[in-house]
Amino acid sequence: MTKPRVYIIGIGAGNPKHLTVQAIEAMREADAVMAMDKGDKKADLLQLRKFFLEKYAPDTPLITVTDPERDRNPADYKAEVERWHQARADKLKAAMPSGTVAFLVWGDPNLYDSTLRIIERMRISDIEVIPGITSIQALTATFGLVLNKIGGPITITTGRQLENSSALDPTENTVVMLDGHAAWQAHVTDNTYIWWGAYLGTENEVLREGFVKDIGDELAQLKADLRLKHGWIMDIYLLREVDRADVLMP
Hints:
The structure is a single chain. This protein has two domains: 5-133, Cobalt-precorrin-4 Transmethylase, domain 1, CATH 3.40.1010.10; 136-241, Tetrapyrrole methylase, C-terminal domain (Methyltransferase, Cobalt-precorrin-4 Transmethylase, Domain 2, 2-Layer Sandwich), CATH 3.30.950. It has eight helices and ten strands. The chain is globular and about 60 Å long. It is α/β, with parallel strands linked by helices and 250 residues long. A hairpin with a 7-residue loop joins β8 and β9 (206-211). The longest helix is centred in the middle third of the chain and has 19 residues, at 77-95. The chain starts with a strand and ends with a helix. This is Precorrin-6A synthase (Deacetylating). Keywords: Cobalamin biosynthesis, Methyltransferase, S-adenosyl-L-methionine, Transferase.
């Protein structure tokens, strides 16, 4: 029996123009694309994958697998994620066809995404990773920002880590992903500035910027409202210390 070959394809933050030529060629070459069906609340994510296929690789079929349930407030977070990843791997392996199979990954497969770890659990050795534009790049491009200060470091972390770690602060640059709440409130000075974006690259894109002490509460409410409206939210933000005089000057 021929062993499956797998493409793990980064498809950007949601804008179909973010797909690279390499990504489109791999989508066309694949015998099938596989995706997790996360239910009605996140149907938009599956519909966007279908749209990308219809636009760039209409002859490549899509195989969907129902996503296993996950405890969002576990006593042991790491153990629950490990269990969930294994459950996903088992379901995908059972449904995987022969030939070349592709997975379409939001952003880049190497940054805060579990697809590579799940494929590794399936013991598939023939894997090719195709990089994609990350939401970090989409955010900074949209706001016209240089991500780093001159010669300065960049911290990329999660909302959970920002909330729970006293060692993290936005003095230089802190990019925050996977924030289930409003962790930008956790470490704030008078000069902490936020550039925030949700649903980047899609027709639902929402952008805000300002000093956290000025807009932090309003932004938290906006995020809650958007989650309620769409049933899900993907957001990302950059925190940086900025002199108020530099921002408020005409």
